C-alpha cells in the first residue's frame, strides 16, 4: 500500500514538473477517476505543489528544487496524519487539508508585487490581480502567467489532466509550456485563442473597446466569438485587434515586444484609443477618470512610461503635450476635456 502511494506521488510530481508520457498519463488519469478520494488527493497534492514553488524557484522554474520541497511537504503532511486523532473521519481530514493547501498557495502567491487573491472551489480556481498591481504565477503545467492590474483568470480543477482551458477577464502575458497532446486555450466572452506552446499577450477588459492579442513567439489560432468568420492565424510580431462594436478583427505587423512591457512595470500605449488608455490608467493608479467630451473617444496616443517612477499627473502632462487634450485633477478624480 505504501509503495503504491509512493508511486502515485511520483506520478503526480512528474506530471507537475515535466509532464508524463502517454502510458503514465493514462495510468494517473485512471487512478484519479477511480474514486472521489483519489481525485481529492490529486487536487490537494497539486495545491501543495503550488505552495512549494518559492519565489527563487519560480523565477527560474527550478523543477528539481521545487520537487524536493514538494516531497518534503508531502512527508511532513504524512507525519501529521500519523499523529492525528483517530476519531476524525477521512472526509474531514481532506477538507482541512484542502483549506491548508489553499492557505499555502496564498502564501506562495502573495509575495508578488501588489499581492494576489486566490479562491479555491470544487469547480474551479480563480486568481485575481488587484488594482494598482500585477501578479506573476505558474500554472500546474509549468506555464508562466503574468496578470495585469484588475485582471482575473479562472481554470478548472482538471487543468493539465483533461484540459488546459483558461478563462480570462483583463490582461495576461503567457509563456505556455508546449504539449502537443493537450492544446492550451484562453477564452474571453469575445475571443478564443488556441496554442500548443508559445509566448503571447492577451488583453480583453470588459470595459475596453478593443481586444488585442500580440504574439512574440510560435503560432496562435484565434476564433472570433462576436462574428462568424474564418479563424485567424498569428505569426511572431503580429497582433490581432478585435473591434467589439462591429465584431471585425484585423491583423497587423508591429513591434510585439512592446505589448508585454507592463510585466516590467512599464505603461506602453501603442496608438491606443483614449478610452482604453483611461481605463488602463485607472487600473494602474487606482483613480477615477472621466472623459468630458465624446469627440475625444476616437483619439489615439503613443507613449511609454514607468509606472513606479512617474505619477499619474506626469503621464497626463505627456498626453496633454500633444495639445489634443487638457485635464483637471481633484484628489483622486480626474476629468479629461
Automatic annotation (TrEMBL):
Residue intervals of the FecR protein domain: 129-221
Regions that span the bilayer: 93-112
Key words of the record: Membrane, Transmembrane, Transmembrane helix
InterPro entries xref list: FecR (IPR006860), FecR_C (IPR032508), Ferrdict_sens_TM (IPR012373)
GO molecular function: sigma factor antagonist activity
Domain of life of the source: Bacteria
Residues in Protein FecR C-terminal domain copies: 266-336
PANTHER family: PERIPLASMIC SIGNAL SENSOR AND SIGMA FACTOR ACTIVATOR FECR-RELATED, PROTEIN FECR
Protein name as annotated: Anti-sigma factor
Amino acid at each position: 500500500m505504501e509503495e503504491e502511494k509512493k508511486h502515485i506521488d511520483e506520478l503526480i510530481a512528474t506530471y507537475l514538473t515535466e509532464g508524463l508520457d502517454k502510458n503514465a498519463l493514462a495510468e494517473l488519469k485512471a487512478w484519479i477517476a477511480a474514486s472521489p478520494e483519489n481525485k481529492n488527493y490529486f487536487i490537494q497534492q497539486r495545491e501543495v505543489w503550488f505552495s512549494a514553488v518559492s519565489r527563487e524557484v519560480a523565477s527560474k522554474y527550478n523543477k528539481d528544487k521545487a520537487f524536493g520541497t514538494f516531497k518534503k511537504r508531502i512527508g511532513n503532511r504524512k507525519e501529521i496524519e500519523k499523529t492525528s486523532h483517530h476519531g476524525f473521519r477521512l472526509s474531514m481530514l481532506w477538507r482541512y487539508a484542502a483549506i491548508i493547501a489553499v492557505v499555502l498557495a496564498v502564501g506562495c502567491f502573495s509575495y508578488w508585487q501588489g499581492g494576489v487573491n486566490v479562491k479555491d472551489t470544487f469547480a474551479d480556481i480563480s486568481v485575481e490581480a488587484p488594482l494598482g498591481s500585477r501578479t506573476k504565477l505558474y500554472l500546474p503545467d509549468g506555464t508562466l502567467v503574468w496578470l495585469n492590474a484588475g485582471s482575473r483568470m479562472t481554470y478548472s480543477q482538471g487543468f493539465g489532466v483533461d484540459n488546459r482551458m483558461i478563462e480570462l477577464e483583463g490582461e495576461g502575458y503567457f509563456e505556455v509550456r508546449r504539449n502537443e497532446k493537450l492544446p492550451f486555450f484562453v477564452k474571453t466572452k469575445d475571443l478564443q485563442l488556441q496554442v500548443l506552446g508559445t509566448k503571447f499577450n492577451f488583453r480583453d477588459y470588459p470595459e475596453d473597446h478593443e481586444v488585442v492579442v500580440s504574439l512574440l513567439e510560435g503560432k496562435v489560432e484565434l476564433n472570433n466569438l462576436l462574428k462568424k468568420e474564418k479563424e485567424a492565424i498569428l505569426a511572431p510580431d503580429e497582433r490581432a485587434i478585435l473591434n467589439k462594436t462591429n465584431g471585425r478583427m484585423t491583423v497587423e505587423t508591429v513591434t510585439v515586444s512592446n505589448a508585454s512591457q507592463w510585466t516590467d512595470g512599464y505603461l506602453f500605449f501603442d496608438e491606443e484609443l483614449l478610452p482604453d488608455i483611461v481605463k488602463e490608467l485607472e487600473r494602474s493608479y487606482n483613480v477615477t477618470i472621466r472623459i468630458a467630451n465624446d469627440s475625444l473617444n476616437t483619439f489615439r496616443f503613443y507613449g511609454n512610461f514607468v509606472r513606479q517612477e512617474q505619477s499619474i499627473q506626469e503621464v497626463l502632462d505627456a498626453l496633454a503635450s500633444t495639445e489634443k487634450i487638457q485635464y483637471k485633477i481633484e484628489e483622486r478624480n480626474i476629468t479629461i476635456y
